Amino acid sequence: MSSQTADPRPSLVWVALSIVYVVWGSTYLGIHYLIETIPPMVGAGIRFIVASVLLAAVLAIRSGGVRVLRVPWRRLGTAALAGVLLLTGGNGMIGVAEQHMSTGLAALLVASVPLWLVVFRWATGDRPAVSTIAGVLVGFGGLALLTLTRGGGSGSALGVAIVLGAALSWSVGSFLSARLPMPANPFVASVYEMAAAGVTLLVIGLGRGERLHLHEVSRASWLGLAYLVTFGSLVAFTSYVWLLGNAPISLVGTYAYVNPAVAVLLGVAFAGENATWTIVAGGLIIILGVGLVVSTERRPRGEVTAPAPPGTPRRRRERRRSPRASRSTPGRPPRRTGVR
Fold it and tell me: Helices 130-153 and 103-110: crossing angle, nearest 10°?
């Protein structure tokens, strides 16, 4: 590269990060409009099936054939399991929950996902730093405030219970997907995750009596669905995967506590929601806790490189490891830390 040619990556990093900040934070508002006239589980099922087909087509075109989509059956099964946990139990339930609560409250409760991941690590033998545990306790304090007060009346007990279950399902899916053999290409993994989740959501939605009446669907719901498919499931995800290879994990991980703030602001501006004092206080406490966890996890401990922030994929360690230790399961897709 010529000395007069500037490296374009720093500016591209901020463009991609801005997309992840705003788009993933705005998906809660997109779901709000989607479920106005489209049943939540059927709508989410359509979203993920369409997104999986579009992503598969793009991959096939760019790779010169459908061979890029071929994966061993075992990896296909684990990708499907991850998709059901992440997108059916996680994302799909957000639409159901938003029938009973504001978008801002849902986003703030979902922000607890990185905290749950630390709990899972501790339960499986990992011992996080004291400051990480402090961040988890602070974050769960904010979560308790929002749960007990239901966001100052911004949601019902049923809605809070559903979204907490969704966050827990997403956390379990994130935790397992980083430890199970997955398709080597993260985009291919995403195709099968979305396809499995879409089919499951449609089956469950139709089974519980949801029906899509096209003549009753409003323009806002169609736009919400289109936005979630194109921007929420394709553009932002592509930007996120690109960031994983071109930006520090500590920087990428900041979206975990920027998204809720974006969701609250958009809910107030476009959905007529109220930012009650409990939402503001509880949200700030949760964001503070997540911030403590992310900032602590990015610090090196002695000679050992610090683990990636909870919910983000592990980068290759700077320290040289033994050949046996360096053998890891190939193709683990990035962990996600928020329901999209």
Answer: 160
Per-residue pLDDT at 325 exceeds 50: no
How deeply is 208 buried, as exposed, middle or buried, from its count of CB atoms within 10 A (0-12, 13-18, 19+)? exposed
For tokens 């050949």, name the residue: 323
Q: How many whole angstroms separate alpha carbon 46 and alpha carbon 39?
A: 11
The letter for the amino acid at 256 is A
Choose among 330, 90, 58: nearest CA to 187.
Answer: 58
Mapped onto helix, strand or coil, the DSSP state of residue 45 is helix
Q: pLDDT by residue (tens digit) across 81-98?
A: 999 999 999 999 999 999
Rounded Cα distance between 213 and 115, Å, is: 40
Return the H-helix or E-strand segment holding 15.
helix 9-34
E strand intervals along 144-223: none
CB atoms under 10 Å from CB of 19, counted, come to 20
Q: Among 184, 209, 172, which Cα is nearest to 87's?
A: 172
Give me the pLDDT at residue 329, please. Answer: 40
Query: How many Å apart are CA 45 and CA 39, to the nearest integer?
Result: 10
Q: Residue 222 to residues 36, 69, 218, 268: CA-CA distances in angstroms?
A: 10, 29, 7, 22
Give residue 337's identity as a one-letter amino acid code.
Answer: T
- pTM score above 0.85: no
With CA atoms as reference, report the closest residue to 331 among 8, 76, 15.
Answer: 76
17-31, 132-146, 216-230, 308-322: segment of lowest average pLDDT = 308-322
DSSP category for residue 191: H
